[in-house]
Amino acid sequence: MDFSKLYHPSALNSFQYIAVVGAIMSGGAQLIIHLLDYPRPEGYLYLYWCWLGLYIFGSLLNLFGKPPEGHHHHH
After folding, report:
1. Which of 19, 48, 73, 75 has its Cβ near the most Cβ atoms within 10 Å?
2. Phi/psi at 70 (5° precision)
3. How far, rounded to the nearest angstrom, does the alpha carbon of residue 26 sit from its chain's CA centroid?
4. Domain of life, per the record (predicted)?
């Protein structure tokens, strides 16, 4: 089993990539909200659970999904 599919950027699938970028963007937004001294929206922390769920789903697909068929050229 290739565990680099869990952390190596070039091995991530779309679900994992979206989850990582979403978590980073949510963290950045939370930092800005904190720096501007605004109240954090109710339920904001649930975003991280959603990103984690999406990442786990993508990881399972990446680790246990069928490997790609390979590229076929038809002439």
Report:
1. 19
2. 90, 160
3. 12
4. Bacteria
Would you give the distance in Å from CA 25 to the centre of its chain?
11
pLDDT of residue 2: 80
Around Cβ 56, how many Cβ atoms within 10 Å?
13
Locate 49 and state its tokens: 């659970």
Tokens of 55: 């990442």
Question: Would you say 51 and 8 are in contact if contact means Cβ atoms under 8 Å apart?
Answer: no
- Quick: pLDDT tens for 18-73: 999 999 999 999 999 999 999 989 999 999 999 999 999 999 999 998 766 655 55
Say what the pLDDT of residue 7 is: 79
